[in-house]
Write a sequence for this structure.
């Protein structure tokens, strides 16, 4: 199958790497420098996997040969079977993108969004075909994490869902079917926990290190909630909380003031080298 991935940030590049393992994949970002950096990063990841004997040289070469960078979407050679966007988690940006895609001759692909919280029905209304639109929510890092949430919108066809289930299986991953709801399943449970961890920190109950150690050893979590927030990006955590709160009006989803302050200060976690922890 031929896949177009739009957005070459952390999630987009990871998703592109996954699909390049099973067929021709095209990666595009409005900022071409980001696309080039994504290809370099993927090459380094694959070389590290080979050096650790977790991947063969042949598999690495297959992925790199299947991965094609685009400077302009109009350069796409022919039609594709799947278009998946992984651009910024802002509804207006995603809607505008799908409106623009209507002007391109991409055939009759499945249209997918990697949104972590936004309404699939709302996004689908701006796509070329709402019946072929679905949420395909990968988790970071996409090549490693085995789960993909498949979210049906109001008009998503059963055929589209069935096709995506087969696609996820071909990637060697597991899908769960989710009916449309704010935050879907994982983030509906995970993000409020992170928000509560921020509250525990703000109240001086424990240090970031002790909060994370408590959850790792006391709840058997592989990563503590504050370290995980830094990994996700505090701006992303805040975006998801805002969606949950705006959609439900439930005060339990109200973002903690400390989280807001940190995002305003540019303390976004690993990507800014500073969040609840310092990174070099």
């Amino acid at each position: 199958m031929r896949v177009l991935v739009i957005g070459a940030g952390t999630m987009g590049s990871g998703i592109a790497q996954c699909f390049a393992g099973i067929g021709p994949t095209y990666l595009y970002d409005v900022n071409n420098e980001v696309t080039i950096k994504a290809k370099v990063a993927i090459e380094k990841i694959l070389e590290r996997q080979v050096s650790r004997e977790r991947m063969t040289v042949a598999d690495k070469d297959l992925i790199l040969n299947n991965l094609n960078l685009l400077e302009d979407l109009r350069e796409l050679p022919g039609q594709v079977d799947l278009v998946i966007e992984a651009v910024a988690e802002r509804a207006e940006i995603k809607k505008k993108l799908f409106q623009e895609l209507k002007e391109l001759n991409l055939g009759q692909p499945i249209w997918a969004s990697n949104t972590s919280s936004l309404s699939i029905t709302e996004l689908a209304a701006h796509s070329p075909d709402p019946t072929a639109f679905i949420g395909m929510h990968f988790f970071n890092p996409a090549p490693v994490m085995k789960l993909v949430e498949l979210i049906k919108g109001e008009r998503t066809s059963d055929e589209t869902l069935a096709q995506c289930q087969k696609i996820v299986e071909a990637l060697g991953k597991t899908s769960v079917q989710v009916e449309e709801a704010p935050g879907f399943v994982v983030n509906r449970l995970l993000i409020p926990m992170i928000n509560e961890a921020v509250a525990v920190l703000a109240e001086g109950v424990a240090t970031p290190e002790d909060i994370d150690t408590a959850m790792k050893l006391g709840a058997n979590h592989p990563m503590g909630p504050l370290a995980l927030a830094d990994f996700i990006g505090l701006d992303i955590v805040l975006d998801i909380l805002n969606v949950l709160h705006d959609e439900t009006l439930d005060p339990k989803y109200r973002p903690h003031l400390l989280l807001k302050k940190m995002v305003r200060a540019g303390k976004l976690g690993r990507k800014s080298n500073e969040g609840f922890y310092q990174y070099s």
Remarks:
- The chain has a mean pLDDT of 96.
- The longest strand covers residues 133-138.
